TrEMBL record:
This is Actin-bundling protein. It comes from Marasmius oreades. Residues 8-23 have a biased composition (Basic residues). It is found in: Nucleus, Nucleolus. Keywords: Nucleus. Belongs to the FRG1 family. Residues 32-42 have a biased composition (Basic and acidic residues). PANTHER family: FRG1 PROTEIN, FSHD REGION GENE 1. GO terms for cellular component: catalytic step 2 spliceosome; nucleolus.
Amino acid sequence: MSTEKVRSTKLKFKGDKTKRKRKREDGDDDEGRSGTRRKDDNIDPETWVFPENPDEIRGPTFIVHPSDPVPISINFNATTSRIVIHALDKDKAEDSKEPPHVLERTPTDVAQVWVTTRVAGSPTINIRSGTGEGKFLSCDTHGIVSADRDARGPQEEWTPVIMPDGMVAFMNVYEKYMSIDEVAGGSLQLRGDSEQVGFGERFWVKIQYKYKKEATEDKKKKQEGMSGPPKIDESATNHLYQAWGAGRSVTSVEDKKELKRARKEGRLAEALLDRRSKLKSDRFC
């Protein structure tokens, strides 16, 4: 059996640098990182996860408040176009008598899912209902939060703020925060006039993994685009934007005559200089 080294069939081009495999003291190599990437790729794109930064809050969104004694979710009633505060203790686990922990909650009804959109590069978001005709969550100057607007405007803009514990606060255009408020009779409602972020102003927010991954990729592309100054072909740019005819030099008959004459004069001048230099060299010889 031949012991000759098998040549790689991978195409290589002249000038390509050979990549060397890095060795680490602990014996690990790039397989560790590739293994992590494979693990991430195996995650179901529709898995509900927590956002780590405000840019990741996009797409289907599940908003929960850890109220006492039971957590609640922010729902939308498509029939009445009204916000509904839903007690999550009604959602029992299938094989357990005890309901899941608030951090393990996922939507069980389309009424619990909102759709978050944003303008590229803007810190604000729009929160639209995922059912019905799609109403936007808004807050007026009196702090009344509603979901009956068909179009978006300043009152429909929210700025998500990620708190140190991972919870999210939503600030409106008036720099006030959305909160859960208890009204007469013990019922709960959404308000948008809180000056500070306390327990009532903190929400657990979940998004789908594919949108979190999308936000990470967008951020990476943006950083790669800003890594260096753009390369500009100055001569080509000047020729294109400082000439007539979309980059074609357009000259009149008189201009052509002048250019022709200048070329002739230039050649004559060069011939005279060559002749003078030759005479000088012959004189010294």
